[in-house]
Design goal:
single chain, alpha+beta, Alpha-Beta Plaits, four-stranded antiparallel beta sheet, flat
Length: about 100
Amino acid sequence: MISITQLIYIKDGQEKVFDQFESIAIPIIKKYNGRLLFRIRPSEKTFIENTIEHPYEIHLVEFDTKQDFDRFMLDEERKKFLHLKNQSIKSSILYQGTKLS
């Protein structure tokens, strides 16, 4: 099992474009043995302490294998809409890990 945590930073005024991309990309996760565990939009009040800019959204996703995640990233349907991602996302940080028992 592989876990992916993504911090997403949005360009000003591009929230609807980002939501449009997510409405396409998120359902594709299941096609590759993946599960969206949570998608949150933290507010300024939810941060107790931080040394980096707070993200617009935080996603936690898990896939059965690294190969499943790699196949998701290469999905042709998802790739058709990457222009929406590029238009709306300023930057993102991806953390990859494994679940500890």
